[in-house]
Amino acid sequence: MKDHPGLPKKYIESKKGRICYQEEGEGRAVILIHGGGPGAYGFSNYRRNIGALSGRNRVVVLDLPGFGGSDHRDNSNGIFSTLADALLELMDALGLKTASLVGNSLGGGTSIRFALDHPERVDRLVLMGPGGSLPATSTFPSEGLLRMLTFYDGDGPSLEKLERVLDLLVFDRSTITRELVEERYRTATLPQTLSNPPLRGQAHHPNNELWKADLDKLPHPTLLIWGREDRVLPLDMAFILLKRIPKADLHIFSNCGHWAQWERAEEFNQLVGNFLAA
Questions:
Q1: What SUPFAM superfamilies does the database record attribute to this sequence (predicted)?
Q2: DSSP assignments along 18-53, one per residue
Q3: Which residue out of 4, 118, 251, 258 is catalytically annotated?
């Protein structure tokens, strides 16, 4: 799978903090929202998907606050609420009345929170191993999530710690190149991120328990995507979402971890492209 060669960074200035984004294509707006692993940011997580999805859509790739080129924001009210507020600022600044949201992990939880708060601004939802749910039988927090949450603890970040996180993000470790590891480490150790790790203090915040929210009131066509071997947010976290979101369908990729959009990129692009065009 060929990675996207890159896109220029753009910025929205806000009193709450600068927001970094990139975009490509024309048509209906689709916003790609990345996960919360160490060194995550928009382009890094979606470089295998932007080209395919921008063929028929205006694709906007967001760096969530505290990640990549976007400034840190206060998360005391729960991280999903903070990130959803930034997403609203982005859409307003770009003049987007509505958009479809494609969110992985932290980005999936952000998409759910935004759709609950602003249902009229959302067309369709694509949620890949989204945060905010509850597993039916798996031990939780999972080993993968614990490695993410403790990355900045103790002696601080290291390449060895990052390697251990990435080991549990994917089913096939050979898909992770040395260049990607080094890129994510540079991003994970940016000064603003070191001083304010975005996930710190968020593990047990009650406002992040989206499974308790009014999911049955979400009117949007919703595609849940999970890797069968997800060791960060396990597959049985899909069941409560599938039961409670009225228009939700579930697609499971075998031999796939938490990064479905990365490990199964070609199939993911076709599946999501067709769903968005329906």
A1: alpha/beta-Hydrolases
A2: -EEEEEE--SEEEEEE---STT--HHHHHTTTHHHH
A3: 258
Tens of pLDDT, residue by residue over 218-240, are: 999 999 999 999 999 999 999 99
Confidence category of residue 203, pLDDT binned at 50, 70, 90 = confident
Amino acid at 215: L
What is the rounded CA–CA span in Å between residue 190 and residue 39?
Answer: 9
Separation between Cα atoms, residue 242 and residue 153, nearest integer Å:
35
Residue type present at position 95: G
* Distance of alpha carbon 103 from alpha carbon 202, whole angstroms: 18
If we measure between CA atoms, which residue out of 88, 92, 100 comes closest to residue 64? Answer: 88
Can you tell me the mean pLDDT for 140-147?
Answer: 94
Contact between 233 and 260 under an 8 Å Cβ cutoff? The reply is no
Q: CA dihedral in degrees (150, 154, 160, 165; nearest 10)?
A: 0
Residue 192 and residue 96 in contact, taking contact as beta carbons nearer than 8 Å: no
Residues 6+ apart with CB under 8 A from 83: 33, 64, 65, 106, 110, 113
Question: Quick check: 148 pLDDT over 90?
Answer: yes
* Among 256, 210, 206, residue whose Cα is nearest residue 232: 256
Amino acid present at 27: G
Does 3 have pLDDT greater than 90? no
160-170 pLDDT tens trace:
999 999 999 99
Over residues 204-223, mean pLDDT: 97
pLDDT at 153 exceeding the cut of 90: yes
- Examine the residue annotation and report whether 4 is marked as an active-site residue of this protein: no
